[in-house]
Design goal:
single chain; about 10% helix; eight-stranded antiparallel barrel; two-stranded antiparallel ribbon; 2 helices; about 210 residues; mainly beta
């Protein structure tokens, strides 16, 4: 009886100590890619400008979790451009390119594992690319907009839709977003240890600042 009590107590401690960081967050939806993402048609009278990502003030980070805990990380090398039309995000587009090998985490051993064929396989799939196909006003959990675009990750290209708060201020465009994405949608299926399974959803956080 005492053994059963202590076993249940241990399970209770594990359960309360490893909450899913993606729980309650906006969840990205993935569908089949929309062919080649075409650039939006721009009227001759429209005012257009390109804003380049400022890597000193921009971050692309993630939080993954398993039964016993979580890990934080990000990407150290990425670039992108916001093509702004008439100062209106919903008329505009964005392109992002990430060096997959620049992935990092809070543990050196884990970083090496993430680069291996079990996860990102960075030797084979060197880039992560995103090209928007649509930006709509309004978004989940108070976001100003909803962005849809083609994401190429781990050799898989799918359309992904997620909420974002976009601000245009002077010579800067900022994009803030937080959403969960299912890693298995992009063929990253490594389960983890049998007694310490890795959750499917990964929390992604974007804090991007682009300058004219």
């Amino acid at each position: 009886m005492n053994r059963m009590f202590f076993a249940l107590a241990a399970l209770s401690i594990v359960a309360t100590g490893c909450d899913d960081p993606a729980k309650g967050k906006a969840k990205a939806t993935t569908t089949e890619a929309v062919g080649s993402a075409a650039a939006p048609v721009t009227a001759a009278s429209a005012t257009t400008a390109d804003y380049k990502f400022d890597n000193n003030g921009s971050k692309i980070t993630w939080t993954g979790s398993k039964v016993t805990g979580k890990h934080d990380g990000g990407f150290g090398d990425f670039k992108g451009t916001v093509h702004l039309v008439d100062g209106a995000p919903e008329k505009s587009s964005v392109k992002v390119e990430i060096d997959a090998a620049s992935i990092n985490s809070d543990q050196e051993k884990l970083t090496g594992h993430l680069k291996s064929p079990d996860f990102f396989d960075v030797a084979k799939f060197t880039k992560v690319d995103f090209t928007s196909t649509e930006v709509k006003k309004g978004g989940e959990k108070g976001a100003t907009h909803t962005i849809t675009g083609n994401l190429s990750l781990h050799g898989v290209t799918k359309a992904i839709t997620f909420p974002a708060t976009i601000k245009v201020e002077g010579d800067q465009v900022s994009v803030e977003s937080e959403f969960a994405v299912n890693r298995k949608d992009f063929g990253i299926n490594y389960p983890g240890k049998q007694d310490d399974l890795i959750r499917d959803d990964v929390l992604v956080k974007l804090s991007v600042h682009a300058k004219k």
